[in-house]
Design a protein that fits this description.
Blueprint: H1 12-25, E1 32-40, H2 43-50, H3 52-67, E2 75-80, E3 83-91, H4 94-109, E4 112-114, E5 117-119, E6 123-130, H5 137-154, E7 158-160, H6 164-184, E8 188-197, E9 202-214, E10 218-220, H7 222-231, H8 234-256, E11 261-265, H9 274-286, E12 294-299, H10 300-305, H11 307-320, E13 323-329, E14 346-349, H12 362-376, E15 380-383, H13 389-397, E16 402-404, H14 417-425
Parallel strand pairs: 6-7, 9-11, 11-12, 12-13, 13-14, 14-15, 15-16
Antiparallel strand pairs: 1-3, 1-6, 2-3, 4-5, 8-9, 8-16, 9-10
Helix pairs in contact: 1-5, 2-3, 6-8, 8-9, 9-11
Length: about 425
């Protein structure tokens, strides 16, 4: 690899010093300025798919192309392989920033050719305006970072910093601290949503769902606290608590109903943690649960981040005896090519494909395709979000093996599962 192919990096300190210098020089001018923090969001995927050398050349080409649209007075800094800072100086209005963002996105959306392979760069951008919301180099960078994180979290392409971000990030930080303490205070609890076997019309398993009622903030949605845990060191603590509590609470139920499975979601960050894999093995032994009763659910997008590495982790879990499920299957369809390689036992079709399911519809064809393909690989298929008798009837026609959703039963405390098991047994 030639040195000129590797973009020269600047430190945060160098960026801040350059920003402060420019702000001080132009302190008396009325012109506004803007800092853009640009991230190549699919950088790691490109690196893994095409190799490190290609990834570096790709980033170098992105940098060259982005620099080409800037004016002479604008500043450009490469902070990491996939993160770039652009200082637009001056700007007449926010519209100039929007125009620049549009150019940045269009210049990479069409794809860049590396060794005759066209690779697309997916940019995420955080923007901040001087002096409207920030008046120092340090503050400009902090605000741009928060805007970028907001963009990535919301799945957007770009965001302008808003003062409300400060409150949101402060609340997020406090919640992260509270989460670890709440686990110690037993403020978290588990609910269990039953799954129905469509062939026997009996309850065949249940999914474990964590809930949090904080003594200060009240009920906090999993959609809020799980992402917070992912960003902090709380993920491992939370996941271990969920596994231990679920196996402890379900042990007696599984003794009475040995054919029922317990499904637990596994955090994406823990797929890189072999100590967590070892913990799973210890927890199974501690609570005397047959490993074959445990199903570990992993989202499709997580699996596709690094297929070979994921396969290694999953094989380790399979060797313990646990079963593996791909959750939200179909939202990406990227894993279709890997079904014959992945050591998995079931697919959970995302509920978005079951809403309004009718004969001959696009979703009907998709569910039928997934079910047929899964059965060829001897995989079970679970339909999520089954909320009506009509959907239940339709997915049974399509060959789906099990159903989960309000039509079968809402998430409930462990003690209520006995009654719903008996209910379906007496149908």
């Amino acid at each position: 690899m030639n040195p000129e192919n590797i973009p020269a990096h600047s430190s945060r300190l160098e960026l801040i010093q350059n920003l402060d210098r420019r702000l001080n020089i132009n302190a008396r001018q009325a012109f506004k300025k803007s800092l853009l923090l640009v991230e190549i969001n699919n950088f790691l995927t490109i690196d893994k798919q095409y190799g490190v050398a290609t990834g570096i050349r790709f980033c170098s080409k992105v940098v060259t192309n982005l620099k080409s649209i800037l004016r002479n007075d604008d500043l450009f800094f490469v902070l990491q392989e996939n993160r770039i800072a652009i200082f637009l100086d001056p700007i007449a209005s926010e519209d100039i920033v929007l125009l620049a963002i549009d150019k940045l996105i269009r210049i990479t959306d069409e794809g860049l050719c590396i060794d005759k392979t066209k690779i697309k760069a997916r940019l995420k951008i955080g923007a901040v305006i001087f002096p409207d919301t920030a008046n120092t180099g340090t503050r400009l960078l902090q605000c741009a970072e928060k805007a970028l994180e907001y963009t990535i979290d919301r799945g957007q392409t770009y965001s302008f910093f808003d003062p409300s971000f400060d409150q949101a990030f402060e609340k997020e930080y406090l919640l992260a601290e509270d989460l670890a303490e709440s686990i110690k205070r037993n403020e978290l609890f588990l609910l269990y949503q039953p799954q129905l076997c469509l062939q026997t019309q009996s309850i065949s398993g249940f999914e474990v769902l964590a809930r949090w009622h904080n003594h200060k903030h009240g009920f906090i949605s999993p959609e809020i606290f799980f992402p917070i845990a992912e960003k902090t060191d709380t993920t491992r603590v939370l996941s271990e608590w969920v596994v231990n509590t679920a196996l402890r609470q379900s042990r007696e139920l599984l003794e009475q109903h040995p054919d029922i499975s317990v499904s637990i979601n596994v955090s994406s960050s823990l797929l890189d943690d072999y100590q967590f894999v070892e913990f799973i093995g210890r927890a199974i032994k501690l609570w005397s649960i047959p490993a074959s009763n445990l199903v570990l659910e992993i989202t499709e997008s997580v699996m596709m981040n690094n297929v070979d590495h994921t396969i290694g982790i999953l094989n380790t879990l399979k060797n313990i005896g646990a079963k593996i499920s791909i959750d939200d299957f179909g939202t990406g369809f990227s894993s279709l090519n890997y079904l014959n390689r992945l050591p998995i036992d079931e697919l959970k079709i995302d509920k978005s494909f079951l809403m309004g399911l009718s004969v001959g519809s696009e979703n009907w064809n998709i569910v039928q395709l997934v079910a047929d393909l899964a059965h060829r690989f001897k995989l079970e298929v679970v339909g999520e979000g089954v909320e009506s008798e009509a959907i239940l009837t339709n997915i049974k026609k399509l060959g789906v093996n099990r159903a989960q959703g309000y039509q079968i039963g809402k998430a409930m405390p462990i003690n209520d599962l006995i009654s719903i098991i008996e209910k379906y047994k007496n149908h």
